[in-house]
Design a protein that fits this description.
The complex is a heterotrimer of chains A (about 80), B (about 260) and C (about 475).
Chain A: E1 15-19, H1 29-33, E2 38-40, E3 46-48, H2 58-67, E4 73-77
Chain B: H1 2-6, H2 13-40, H3 50-77, H4 85-89, H5 98-119, H6 126-134, H7 136-150, H8 157-178, H9 186-209, H10 216-220, H11 224-227, H12 230-236
Chain C: H1 27-34, H2 50-58, H3 70-80, H4 85-90, E1 94-99, H5 108-115, H6 117-131, E2 135-141, H7 145-161, E3 167-173, H8 182-189, E4 213-216, H9 218-235, E5 246-253, E6 259-264, H10 269-275, E7 283-288, E8 294-297, H11 308-311, E9 322-327, H12 332-346, H13 352-370, H14 380-391, H15 399-413, H16 415-424, H17 428-431, E10 472-474
Parallel strand pairs in C: 1-2, 1-4, 2-3, 5-9, 6-10
Antiparallel strand pairs in C: 5-6, 7-8, 7-9
The chains are: A alpha+beta (about 80), B mainly alpha (about 260), C alpha/beta (about 475).
C-alpha cells in the first residue's frame, strides 16, 4: 500500500506533510482531503509518502492540516531532524 | 430602551429577537450534538465524507454560539426584566427568575468552554479537551430546561413541538453514541442511557406541573413588580399578533 | 592529568578491571585502580571542551542501543544551552544516566552500577563538566534494588570525600521496555508517564525541565571516565578503526557461563563463547542485539566478529550488547512468537500502527506456529511481510522498528521451521518455549505515579525488591580465561 508518486515535473515547494503518530486518532480526514499523498492503512491510520509537496497541493495540504481534529497532521519545511 | 417599550403597545423587537434567537439556538445546539455524535462514530458516506461531517459540526457549533450571543444581547436590550449582561454570563445572580435564567447562563458558559478548548486543541492536553467536550452532553439539557423555565412561550404549541423534536433527536444521538461501545465502557454508557431516561422522566413529571401550569411565572421567580402582567402574558404567548390589548407600559413580554 | 602509579593497560580488562567478586568497588579501591579523575574545567558554548574533543577523537559511540556518536550528542547539548545571563541560567544542561535497562536480556547496566558505580559516576561528572551541567540524575529501574542502593552508597561516599561540583539525584523509573527510550525517560522525569513523546524537540534541545538534557547509557559514561584519564589514543589501542575500544556483552542462552563479558570490538564470537565455557547445546541461531536486534543463523557463527561493520553483512548490529545463543532443542519460531507477543504488550499503545501492527505480528506468528490460518490473510508469510511494511517507521519511537527487525530476521533464519509449522502445527520445542528471557518476575507493564526528581514526592508504589541474577564477570579479553570468583 503506497501513495502514488508525485508528478516529477511540478515545482517543489520545499514543504512536506508529517503526522504526529501519538496525536493521531485515525479520524481519516487527511486522507479524504489529500489522497494524492495520504492513504489509510487497514486500521485507519494515515500512511504518508513523505515526498515533497508539489506547489499545486499546498492549499489542500493546509486544509487537511486544519481539518485534523487532533492537530496530528503537520506541514513542515523540508529540513527533517 | 424604555422609550422603545413605551412606544406603541406591541412587544418590542427585542422580545421577538430573544425568542427567535433562542429557538434557533436550541435547534443549532441539537444539530451540533447530533453531528458531534456522527463525528465520533466515524459516520461517513460517499456524499458525506468525514471532513464534511466534522466541518459541519464545527460550523454549526460556532453558529450556535453566535445565536446564543444574539439571544443574550437581545434579552439584555429588552429592558422588561432588567437583565444585566453579567447575569447573562454568571449563573444565578439575576433578579429575574434567577434559577431558570441562571441555567441559561450556565449553559452558555459550558458552550464557551467547549468552543475555546476546541480552538486550542493541539495546544492543550488531549485529556483536558475530551473531558470538557463531555460537558456538551450537560450543556444541552440545561439549555432546554432554561428555555422551559424562563420563557412564557413554554405553553405555545410551536415551541412544544420544536422541543419534542429536539429531544427526540438528542435522545437518538446519545443512544447511538452509547450502545455500540457499551461493552467497552459499561458503566459510562449505562450512566449515559440512564441519564436519557431520567431526563425524559423528569420532563414528563415536571413540565405539566411546572412551566406548563398557569401560575408558573410567579413560582419561577419573576419579580413581583412584573407579575401583574402574567395574565396578559398567557394570552400573548399563544400568538404573536394578539398583543395589542394586552400591552401596558413596560409590556408583558417575558423572554426565552 | 595527574600521574598514575601504573600504566593504563592496553588490553582488557578495562571497564571491569579490579571488579570485586561481590559488592561494589569502594571509592578508595576505585581511585587506586584507575587514578584520579582529571578536572578539565567547565565547558563553554563557544569553545569545544577538551573532553568532548578527546571523545570525538576516540570515536566513542553510545552503548544504549542507538550507537549515536557520544561527542556529537555532547556538542548538541552544549550548543543548546543558553549563552549569558537569564538565558544561561534557564537553559543550564542536565545530565541523565539512563540505567532503566528495560531490555530483558541485558544485565550490563545493572552490573556496572552494582559493582563499579564510581566509574559510571565519574563519567557522568566529567560529562556534566564538559557540557556545563550542574545536576546529574541517575535513573535506575524501580526493581533493581541492589543497583539503587549501590548508587546511593557511592554518592554518599563521594559526598564524604568532598570536592564534588555536581548535584546528584537518584530516580526510580518504572518497569517497561520503552521506559529507557530517551524521550520516555525525560517525560517521566518531568512528571508525566514513562512513554515516548513526539520529537522534535529532542531531549538535547529541551528535555528535563525544558533544559538541554544529555541522556547517556551507564556503559558509555564508564568509557568516558576512562577516556578522560587515559585519552583517545589509549582508547583506540583496542578495537577496530571504525569501532574502537571495548564493549560489555551480556551473553545468554545455551552457554555454560552466561553473564556480562567485556570484549574487544572486532574480536571473534567464537572466542567469546570459549571464554563463556562453550555452548551447552547444538547451536541453531544467535540473537544479536536483543529483542530489537536480529537473528543470525548458526552457520555464520564461526566467522562472526563482534563489530557492527561485519555484523551488517548479516543484517545485525551489537546495539545493547545482548547476545543470546539458541540451541537446537528450542524452537526459534516459538521463542520469537513468545517475545513478539511480549513486545506487543510492551508497546506504549500511543500510536495506532505500533499498537495494532505488533499485535497483528504476534497473532500471525502464533497462528503460523499452531498451523492455523490467520485471517485476513491465510498466507502467513505474506501477512507478516505486509504487516512489517505497515509498521516500520510509523511510530513515535523506534520500538516498532526494532520488533520488525526482530521478526523479519526470524522469518528469514527460521524459514524451514516456519514452513514446517504451517503444515504440521506445534513442535516439541514449542512446548518448552522459554529460552529467551522475559521478565517473568516483573509485573506486567504498569504505570507508576511520577516522582519528579526535584524532590516533589508523589504517591508511589514501591515494588518488592527482586534479587539481581547472580552474574559471572570475566574482565578479560574473550579467549583468555581468568579464574572467576563471582559464582
Amino acid at each position: 500500500m503506497s501513495a502514488p508518486p508525485a508528478p516529477r515535473r511540478s515545482l517543489g515547494s520545499g514543504q512536506h506533510v508529517r503526522v504526529n503518530p501519538i496525536a493521531c486518532d485515525a479520524h481519516g480526514m487527511c486522507a479524504e482531503l489529500l489522497p494524492e499523498q495520504i492513504v489509510l492503512d487497514e486500521w485507519g491510520y494515515p500512511v504518508l509518502g513523505g515526498e515533497e509537496l508539489p506547489a499545486h497541493l499546498i492549499e489542500l495540504a493546509k486544509q487537511a492540516v486544519q481539518a485534523c481534529p487532533t492537530r496530528a497532521l503537520l506541514l513542515e519545511r523540508r529540513r527533517r531532524s | 430602551m424604555t422609550s422603545l417599550l413605551a412606544v406603541g403597545g406591541s412587544p418590542s423587537a427585542y422580545w421577538y429577537l430573544t425568542r427567535s434567537t433562542g429557538a434557533v439556538a436550541l435547534i443549532l445546539l441539537t444539530a451540533s450534538l447530533a453531528l458531534g455524535v456522527a463525528d465520533v462514530r466515524r459516520f461517513a458516506t460517499p456524499h458525506w465524507p468525514r471532513f464534511v461531517i466534522d466541518g459541519l459540526h464545527r460550523t454549526v457549533s460556532l453558529l450556535a454560539v453566535v445565536f446564543v450571543a444574539l439571544h443574550v444581547f437581545a434579552s439584555v436590550l429588552d429592558g422588561f426584566a432588567a437583565i444585566s449582561i453579567t447575569a447573562a454570563v454568571i449563573p444565578f445572580i439575576s433578579s429575574y427568575r434567577p434559577i431558570w435564567l441562571g441555567l441559561g447562563a450556565l449553559s452558555f458558559d459550558l458552550l464557551l468552554a467547549l468552543v475555546i478548548t476546541s480552538m486550542l486543541r493541539g495546544r492543550i492536553s488531549q485529556r483536558v479537551w475530551r473531558v470538557t467536550h463531555w460537558a456538551a452532553y450537560a450543556c444541552w439539557p440545561i439549555a432546554l430546561v432554561h428555555s422551559f423555565g424562563t420563557g412564557s412561550d413554554a405553553r405555545s404549541a410551536w415551541l412544544l413541538l420544536l422541543s419534542v423534536a429536539c429531544i427526540a433527536v438528542v435522545a437518538l444521538a446519545v443512544i447511538s453514541r452509547a450502545l455500540p461501545e457499551f461493552s467497552e465502557h459499561p458503566r459510562l454508557n449505562t450512566a449515559a442511557l440512564g441519564g436519557v431516561a431520567a431526563f425524559a422522566l423528569f420532563l414528563i413529571v415536571w413540565l405539566p406541573s411546572g412551566p406548563l401550569a398557569k401560575d408558573w411565572a410567579s413560582r419561577a421567580g419573576t419579580p413581583a413588580s412584573l407579575l401583574g402582567h402574567s395574565h396578559a402574558s398567557s394570552a400573548a404567548s399563544s400568538s404573536a399578533s394578539s398583543g395589542a390589548e394586552n400591552r401596558t407600559a413596560g409590556t408583558s413580554e417575558e423572554e426565552r | 592529568m595527574s600521574a598514575h602509579a601504573f600504566a593504563p593497560p592496553a588490553s582488557l580488562p578495562r571497564l571491569l578491571a579490579g571488579v570485586p567478586p561481590t559488592g561494589a568497588m569502594s571509592l578508595p579501591d576505585h581511585l587506586a585502580t584507575h587514578g584520579e579523575l582529571p578536572r578539565l574545567g567547565r565547558g563553554s558554548r563557544r569553545k569545544t571542551h577538551p573532553l568532548i574533543a578527546e571523545i570525538e577523537q576516540a570515536g566513542l559511540r553510545g552503548r544504549g542501543g542507538g550507537s549515536f556518536s557520544s561527542a556529537a550528542k555532547m556538542r548538541a547539548v552544549t550548543a543548546a544551552r543558553g549563552e549569558r545571563g537569564l538565558a544561561a541560567w534557564a537553559a543550564r544542561p542536565i545530565v541523565v544516566v539512563n540505567a532503566a535497562e528495560g531490555e530483558p536480556g541485558s544485565l550490563k547496566d545493572r552490573t556496572l552500577l552494582e559493582a563499579i558505580p564510581h566509574l559510571v559516576l565519574d563519567g557522568a561528572a566529567a560529562a556534566a563538566e564538559a557540557v556545563g551541567a550542574e545536576e546529574i540524575v541517575v535513573c535506575v529501574c524501580e526493581i533493581a534494588q541492589h543497583a539503587h542502593e549501590s548508587v546511593e552508597r557511592a554518592i554518599a561516599e563521594r559526598a564524604r570525600a568532598g570536592g564534588e561540583r555536581s548535584r546528584w539525584h537518584l530516580a526510580r523509573v518504572p518497569v517497561g521496555y520503552v521506559t529507557g527510550q530517551e524521550s520516555a525517560l525525560v517525560s517521566f522525569l518531568n512528571g508525566g508517564e514513562a512513554k515516548p513523546t513526539f520529537t522534535p524537540p529532542m531531549p538535547f534541545e529541551r528535555g528535563v525541565r525544558q533544559r538541554p538534557t544529555l541522556v547517556n547509557n551507564p556503559e558509555t559514561l564508564a568509557h568516558v571516565a576512562l577516556i578522560a584519564r587515559h585519552g583517545a589514543g589509549w582508547f583506540r589501542m583496542l578495537g577496530t578503526p571504525e569501532q574502537p575500544g571495548s564493549a560489555l556483552i551480556t551473553l545468554g542462552g545455551h552457554v555454560a557461563s552466561p553473564g556480562v563479558y567485556e570484549v574487544e570490538h572486532g574480536s571473534s564470537f567464537v572466542s567469546l563463547i570459549e571464554a563463556a565455557g562453550g555452548v551447552t547445546d547444538e547451536v541453531r541461531a544467535l540473537l544479536v542485539g536483543g529483542y530489537a536486534g536480529s537473528w543470525v543463523d548458526a552457520s555464520h557463527a564461526g566467522s562472526l566478529t563482534l563489530c557492527d561493520a561485519e555484523l551488517a553483512a548479516y543484517g545485525a548490529k551489537l546495539g545493547t550488547g545482548v547476545i543470546i545463543v539458541l540451541g537446537a532443542s528450542s524452537c526459534g519460531l516459538a521463542e520469537t512468537a513468545r517475545v513478539t507477543r511480549w513486545l506487543a504488550q510492551e508497546s506504549a499503545h500511543q500510536c495506532g500502527p505500533c499498537k495494532f501492527g505488533l499485535d497483528g505480528l504476534a497473532r500471525t506468528l502464533e497462528g503460523a506456529i499452531a498451523g492455523v490460518a490467520d485471517l485476513p490473510d491465510p498466507d502467513h508469510r505474506r501477512r507478516l511481510a505486509h504487516l512489517m511494511s505497515l509498521v516500520r517507521g510509523r511510530g513515535a519511537c523506534s520500538h516498532p522498528d526494532g520488533t520488525v527487525r526482530f521478526v523479519g530476521s526470524a522469518v528469514e533464519v527460521f524459514a524451514p521451521e516456519l514452513a514446517d509449522h504451517i503444515v504440521h502445527g506445534r513442535c516439541a520445542g514449542c512446548e518448552e518455549a522459554g529460552a529467551l528471557p522475559l521478565p517473568a518476575d516483573r509485573p506486567p507493564r504498569m504505570t507508576l505515579d511520577a516522582r519528579t526528581y526535584g524532590g516533589v514526592r508523589r504517591r508511589m508504589r514501591v515494588e518488592p525488591a527482586s534479587r539481581a541474577t547472580p552474574m559471572h564477570m570475566h574482565g578479560t579479553a574473550a579467549g583468555r580465561a581468568r579464574p572467576d570468583g563471582a559464582k
